[in-house]
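Sanity check

After download, print the first record. It should look like this:
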Amino acid sequence: MITIDPADKLPIFEQICRSVCRDINGGLLGENDKLPSARELAKLLALNPNTVAKAYSQLERDGIIYSVQGKGCFVAAHEGKAGEKLTESFRKAVSEALNSGATAQELIAIVNEISGLRSRKGE
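Expected structure tokens:
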């Protein structure tokens, strides 16, 4: 399920990309699954359709999805590309945190805390 967080500092189109990659990596979306049209998703998330179209264009450039003229956008044979995209985002965030003065131990503690919370919730 594609989600966005208006409070997140990450641009909305990047949040959409991250959410699609997370859904693919988590098995919610599989190869050749159809994504909602840009207009449908924009209406569902109360966004400008151009924002969704920008996200879909980025995902297509990255090889995560493909489009068929007149049919829509579909999940590509990703072979780990969605996971790579998520890892890239994580590396970028870690790098920014370290550059901002966070220590490796603090970041490890955060990862352990989050993974502990998820395992308790059964995620």
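If your output differs, re-run the checksum step. Summary of this record's structure: The mean pLDDT is 85.
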